[in-house]
Amino acid sequence: MSYYGTTINESPTIVIQAGAAISAPAFLAIKADGTVAGAGEHALGIAHPCNDEAVASGDDLTIQIKDIGTWIAGGAVAKGAELASDADGKAVTATSSDFIIGVALAAATAAGQRIPVQICKCGYK
């Protein structure tokens, strides 16, 4: 048996199929089933900015699963804070039993701001 090229996908993004219709998926936390992550839920990664239009169930959805990405804040967060998803797939400071999706590389002073994050999927707080 021979292999051509690397057997490891080194890309920070993958394409999955949306598990439900999402009106504006870019910069939201997305679960492995292609739906928006709820409060404290495990997420596969953050929807890539190329997903700037609504998607229907079954449409392709590009997800950033590692490295430094951008996430919409669901409220104020401090630089260096461990981040989890709120009920709408936005970044909030992780609390007990939340799944940590990333670490804030800049502060957000209000909901709706886009902040850089190190996607780490660090497990549960």
Structural write-up:
The protein has strands at residues 13-17, 29-30, 45-47, 60-64, 67-72, 82-85, 91-93, 99-104, 114-124. With 125 residues, it is an all-beta fold. Strands 5-9-8-6-7 form a five-stranded antiparallel sheet, with no helix packed on it. A four-stranded antiparallel sheet has the order 1-4-3-2, with no helix packed on it. It is globular. The chain starts with 12 loop residues before the first strand and ends with a strand. The mean pLDDT is 94.
What is the ordering of alpha helices and beta strands?
EEEEEEEEE
Structural class: mainly beta
Strand content: 35-45%
Q: What is Rg?
A: 15 Å
Helical element count?
0
Helix content: under 10%
Query: For the report, how would you describe the main beta sheet?
Result: 5 strands, antiparallel
Low-confidence stretches: none
Average pLDDT figure: 94
Strand order of the largest sheet: 5-9-8-6-7
